[in-house]
Amino acid sequence: MFLKFLRRHRKANPIFEAIGTDMHCHLIPGVDDGSPSLEETKSCIESMQQCGFSRIFITPHFQFPRYPNTEEDITRRYEELSQQLAEAGVTMKLGGISGEYRVDSGFAARVENPRFLLLGGRYVLLEFSLHQQMMGLDEMIFDLQMKGYEVILAHPERYPYLGVFSQRMEQLKNQGVFFQLNILSMHGFYGESAKQKAFQMLDRGWVEFLGTDTHNSLYTQALIDATHSRKIQKVLETHKFMNVEL
To answer: Which residue ranges in the chain fall short of pLDDT 70?
Structure first.
């Protein structure tokens, strides 16, 4: 489903100046399934700037055992990357380092001994399995909130078991969970189902944040193409998002 975006080479239209900040991307080289190198990271950042972004938060995966990252190691790598980008003359402002935390079998222990890398000093960015829902999810979200954290769910439109009009989705919103939509979902990058759910969520007023979820230059090439979508431009014109508050 990604291949059609490889064949398009268009100049970016800087429509994402409207939100300015990307709060979800994977651009620390070699720590997850995102950018494999400094050169790829630089290329992605340059493309994101052309699309109108002026600041990014980097959010590597925390998912044991696939990505057994620690907050200390990720922070160190982020600081190294910041220095390397500055030395290379990259002007994009890095907003900070956070994480995309998978709610898995080890997540309850993480909540008991919280050590999260936060977005904007208060938000924990969570992701679910793409295949099945984790048991005990409500309790874990409640425990996070009781500890003073705000919860953002990454790309809810991509979870096949979460329907926009389902009781489960309603329950998450009633719990005060913020939703972050992947911009490329609106452009069909993840398939027709995710695209349809993305616009349904927007129609319901259930999207507080937008993110690129950039992993590599394939994503940014699709992002450049998306800057010419009239439907996405209209979303930016008619909806207000909280990215500017981070």
So the answer is: 1-9
